[in-house]
From TrEMBL, chain A:
The gene is LOC103707141. The keyword Transferase applies. Residues 95-450 form the Aminotransferase class I/classII large domain. Its EC number is 2.6.1.2, 2.6.1.4, 2.6.1.44. Its cofactor is pyridoxal 5'-phosphate. Pathway: Amino-acid degradation; L-alanine degradation via transaminase pathway; pyruvate from L-alanine: step 1/1; Photosynthesis; C4 acid pathway. One of its GO terms (cellular component) is peroxisome. Belongs to the class-I pyridoxal-phosphate-dependent aminotransferase family. Alanine aminotransferase subfamily. Keywords: Aminotransferase, Pyridoxal phosphate, Transferase. It comes from Phoenix dactylifera. This is Alanine aminotransferase 2. Homodimer.
From TrEMBL, chain B:
InterPro entries: ALAT1/2-like, Aminotransferase_I/II_large, PyrdxlP-dep_Trfase, PyrdxlP-dep_Trfase_major, PyrdxlP-dep_Trfase_small. This is Alanine aminotransferase 2. Homodimer. Gene3D superfamilies: 1.10.287.1970, Aspartate Aminotransferase, domain 1, Type I PLP-dependent aspartate aminotransferase-like (Major domain). It comes from Phoenix dactylifera. Its EC number is 2.6.1.2.
Length: 481, 543
């Protein structure tokens, strides 16, 4: 009897190769436990609103008005909506031809792409072309589109940092390419090691891989490090020498928790470097409304900006974008509002700034609380979360724990994380989901639980960890604090 | 085809070492079908792509990389292009009208090329927008002033929906299949529609129906040896998606003489033909109601198709996005699931995927990107893989998910908003039916034009029996005859239609697709301009 087309055996192999741990084994187990009534703290994904962060008021007002334009004509609308939200809603509606319910240009509404270009221009000091900015249903879709354009077959390699956000590894698997890893140096604050990167590239090439692109996540996910200008310059020089397109995932650019290295975009550094580099190095930069202090994950709003790509390439990318018809229009408006927020003097400005600052300052405090908390635990060392939304502590498991994991048929970090989940309800993602050096184990958690819950969460973690370590070792543990 | 790409790379690199620009083969992506497919997609601003002007950049140190982003062959083959000459030209004309009013024999461009109702003046359903606005800005739900602006049942529905969302956080990523409670509501809506149960776990909410189609193609297509049966004419998402995922399109022709009938004997013939060529045919796409063809399948026909899929082990991909757009009394929409279940076929008998969207129907909410696929009849481990692929994108946009649940669960008799809801819905649907009829009659009144009835969906697909002179003129202009006609129509009237080649047609036949979406008050003018143009065209080219 012929197997049916949708039998497991006859599925596309590339689909089977895909792994995305963020919503993988730990998450599914956590969801099961939640159904059974256990209280779960989901720290597996950067999903701020799910952990109590409130949406900013102004954008919600504007989008609500755009959803229901008949409100704009109602004499009572001013009772519920401030005048600047009303005029901004009119502004965005006028950009559409038919409101939120009509497909826009496949690249996004021109008016919003112009707002994004203006934002980039102001941020970087170099003008940006709206024609080279494509809006997408979240940054992830943009990443997938670009990787789909680059990867021809398994001989095409993409340099990806390890540890990385597994969208990259999953997408490379899905499109049948090769992931060429480059390790970030944990002891050097998750820094770049160009010797190692060059070795990786050479090794890949000797296997017949054509290395086409390099991914950099800045600020890093899961690692949180913020690159210096010198770092970025070195990266761009490397891409220039090796003929790589740089894919700059900059979705956490608003999440910076230290002052030594503020965010600088790859594009700005590229243009600072002047010709020939500024005209030659190809760059695609990604941003989103899901992170920062907005945290509007559910809206699926994002964009990518292309630099130094030939127009025919841009046309091809446009063509593929058009298959998805258009990105969702409300998400586009959120993006417009993010790059063009209320200004001093606007009615909503003070409230907007107050709400934004509150979120950012709290994130900064939580980054510190978590780092310190992890460092006070036995056998745990944790680099400071300089940016993004995660903590990625290293867990030094005693040999007996590793043995127990093996007996249970689990990777050691998965074993630990499952134990943590069962004991405390804290749902993390094992480091293996992001990649790590052989034998060095981590877990990723977000810094997103509410500030008032943090002390209890860290105490709960420490209790589990220290008991776990006690259970599995005989000698004294190592602790950074 | 992969060899082709590597050859091209080698040429470019060799060329750069010889310091000459190597001529890459010209891959003119504006073939007529690409152009037509492009026009179906809407306005574009880019000029046509040609391959020979891509810049190969000189390698500095190493032999085997090229600085520019080369395209995968699949991307090249995929012809869902946005560079439709027709639409680019329409946009240029539109600019001209603004800068030089009176320069053309018409005042405005009428885009009849794309199923985008609200861009042509269709109003959204008030109740849906009330609920969405409240879900977007829930902090006003507590305020007394809100009752002055929103209907009570919209407020109640918003509360009810928000209670289904953990933490009432509409800005959070949801479960990767979509919010459970909303899937429950959709499942209940499906069950009420079909009279057979539906399961929330079978539902995957997506950013429109199109991403769901892509997901299924991704799962089903392993190589170019995997084939998917597609109707000809078809909505070019299917051909584009199959090409993008590296598979083979196996065409089956709908029968224009019998109102675009789907004949299983034709499907069987094409299936066997493909198999004899070593193609593993994995699935069949059926669009019901049809796009561009507008036919609504008869129940008997649907039963034959189900039986055929079961026998041949094909996945049935049922594109049912126009299920609410039915304009004739003698036909009604039956989901394929309903038909299969009523034949006694369950999960073990047939693998079936049904696609639905918020973009069509009477709601026309294209820009929201809401939709779902309901997947039944496959094993748990396959379901896991579908979930896994969905999870990489985390989730679809929440507002679209909410809208999908509203579409499948609209106001009921007795609800405060029911009367106005039903008036809006019936108003839109009856107007669509009238416009479908008016345009169908108009097309049929033209010399040398025959047009099947639009029983459903949003399009008419008239056939042009063009005089030989016109065909020769088209040839001389190096365009397909239907593109030639469409271009002339645009230049004379401002009406934008999509040449039939973008959808596929029996070779040697010519059609164009025209939507029924311009507002009703514009239809008489459209018809009279169309008639005037056609008469003069036929006058010019009569044999």
């Amino acid at each position: 009897m012929t197997p049916k087309p949708l039998d497991y055996e006859s599925l596309n192999e590339n689909v089977k190769k895909v792994a995305y741990a963020v919503r993988g084994e730990l998450y599914l187990r956590a969801a099961e436990l939640q159904k059974e009534g256990k209280k779960i703290i989901f720290t597996n994904v950067g999903n701020p609103h799910a952990l109590g962060q409130k949406p900013l008021t102004f954008p919600r007002q504007v989008v609500a008005l755009c959803q229901a334009p008949f409100l704009l004509d109602d004499p009572n609308v001013g009772l519920l909506f401030p005048a600047d939200a009303i005029s901004r809603a009119r502004h965005y509606l006028s950009m559409t031809s038919g409101g939120l319910g009509a497909y826009s240009d496949s690249r996004g509404l021109p008016g919003i792409r112009k707002e994004v270009a203006d934002f980039i221009g102001k941020r970087d000091g170099y003008p940006s072309d709206p024609e080279l900015i494509f809006l997408t249903d979240g940054a992830s879709k943009g990443v997938m589109q670009i990787l789909n354009t680059i990867i021809r077959d398994e001989n095409d390699g993409i340099l990806v940092p390890v540890p990385q956000y597994p969208l990259y590894s999953a997408t490379i698997s899905l499109y049948g390419g090769s992931l060429v890893p480059y390790f970030l140096e944990e002891e050097a604050n998750w820094g770049l090691d160009f010797y190692n990167i060059r070795q990786s590239v050479a090794a890949a090439r000797s296997r017949g891989i054509t290395v086409r692109a390099m991914v950099i996540i800045n600020p890093g996910n899961p690692t949180g490090q913020c690159l210096s200008e010198a770092n970025i310059r070195e990266l761009l020089e490397f891409c220039f020498q090796e003929n790589l397109v740089l894919l700059a995932d900059e979705v956490y650019q608003q999440n910076i928790y230290q002052d030594e290295r503020p965010f600088v975009s790859a594009r700005k550094i590229l243009f600072d470097m002047g010709p020939p580099m500024s005209k030659e190095v190809q760059l695609v930069s990604f941003h989103t409304v899901s992170k920062g202090y907005w945290g509007e994950c559910g809206q699926r709003g994002g964009y990518f900006e292309m630099t130094n790509l030939p127009s025919q390439t841009v046309d091809e990318i446009y063509k593929v974008a058009s298959i998805s018809l258009s990105p969702n229009v409300p998400g586009q408006i959120f993006l417009g509002l993010m790059v063009n927020p209320p200004k001093p003097g606007d009615i909503s400005y003070l409230k907007f700034v107050q709400e934004s600052k509150a979120v950012l300052e709290s994130l900064r405090r939580r980054a510190q609380i978590m780092t310190d908390g992890f460092n006070s635990c036995r056998n745990v060392v944790c680099n400071f979360t300089e940016g993004a939304m995660y903590s990625f502590p290293q867990i030094r498991l005693p040999p007996k724990a590793i043995e127990a994991a093996r007996k249970a048929g689990k990777a050691p970090d998965v074993f630990y994380c499952l134990g943590l989940l069962e004991a405390t309800g804290i749902s993390t993602v094992p480091g293996s989901g992001f990649g790590q050096k052989e034998g060095v184990l981590h877990l990723r958690t977000t810094i997103l639980p509410a500030e008032e819950d943090m002390p209890a969460i860290m105490a709960s973690f420490r209790k589990f960890n220290d008991e776990f370590m006690e259970q599995y070792e005989n000698c004294r543990g190592y602790s950074r604090m | 085809m992969r060899r082709f790409a590597t050859e091209k790379v080698k040429k470019l690199i060799l060329g750069s070492f010889l310091s000459t620009r190597s001529p890459a083969p010209s891959s003119q992506l504006c073939s007529s079908s690409a152009a037509a497919a492009a026009s179906a997609m809407g306005p574009t601003q880019s000029p046509p792509v040609t391959f020979d002007s891509i810049n190969p950049k000189v390698l500095k140190l190493l032999l085997y990389t090229c600085t520019l982003l080369l395209f995968i062959i699949q991307v090249l083959k995929c012809e869902y292009a946005v560079r439709g000459e027709i639409v680019s030209h329409a946009q240029r004309l539109q600019q001209e009208l603004q800068t030089k009013p009176g320069s053309r024999p018409f005042d405005e461009i009428l885009y009849c090329n794309i199923g985008n109702p609200q861009s042509l003046g269709q109003q959204p359903i008030t109740f849906f927008r009330e609920v969405l606005a409240l879900c977007d800005h829930p902090s006003i739900l507590d305020k007394s002033e809100t009752h002055a602006l929103f209907s009570a049942d919209a407020i109640a529905r918003a509360w009810q929906i928000l209670d289904l969302i953990p933490g009432r956080a509409g800005g959070a990523y949801s479960h990767s299949q979509g919010i459970k409670g909303l899937r429950d509501a959709i499942a209940a809506g499906i069950a009420a529609r079909d009279g057979f149960p539906a399961n929330a776990d079978d539902i995957f909410l997506t950013d429109g129906a199109s991403p769901a189609v892509h997901m299924m193609m991704q799962l089903l297509i392993r190589s170019e040896k995997d084939g998917i049966l597609c109707p000809i004419p078809q909505y070019p998402l299917y051909s584009a998606s199959i090409a993008l995922h590296g598979g083979s399109l196996v065409p089956y022709y709908l029968n224009e003489a019998t109102g675009w009938g789907l004949e299983v004997s034709e499907v069987k013939k094409q299936l066997e033909d493909a198999r004899s060529k070593g193609i593993a045919v994995r699935a069949i796409a059926v669009i019901n109601p049809g796009n561009p063809t507008g036919q609504v399948l008869a129940e008997e026909n649907q039963r034959e198709i189900v039986e055929f899929c079961k026998k041949e082990g094909l996945v049935l991909l049922a594109d049912e996005v126009y299920q609410e757009n039915i304009y004739v009394d003698n036909k009604k929409f039956n989901s394929f699931k309903k038909i299969a279940r009523s034949m006694g076929y369950g999960e073990k008998d047939i693998s079936l995927v049904s696609f639905q969207s918020v973009s069509k129907g009477y709601h026309g909410e294209c820009g929201k990107r809401g939709g779902y696929m309901e997947v039944t009849g496959f094993s748990a481990d396959v379901r896991e893989q579908i979930y896994k692929v969905a999870s990489v994108n985390l989730c679809s946009n929440i507002s679209g998910q909410i809208l999908a649940s509203l579409v499948m669960n609209p106001p009921k008799v007795g609800d405060e908003s029911y009367e106005s809801f039903i008036a809006e819905k019936n108003g839109i649907l009856s107007s669509l039916a009238r416009r479908a009829k008016a345009l169908e009659d108009a097309f049929n009144s033209l010399e040398g034009v025959t047009c099947n009835k639009a029983e459903g969906a949003m399009y008419l697909f008239p056939r042009l029996h063009l005089p030989q002179k016109a065909i020769e003129a088209a040839k001389a202009a190096n365009v397909a005859p239907d593109a030639f006609y469409a271009r002339r129509l645009l230049d004379a009237t401002g009406i934008v239609v999509v040449p039939g080649s973008g959808f596929g047609q029996v070779p040697g036949t010519w059609h164009f697709r025209c939507t029924i979406l311009p507002q009703e008050d514009k239809i008489p003018a459209i018809i009279s301009r169309l008639k005037a143009f056609h008469e003069s065209f036929m006058e010019e080219f009569h044999d």
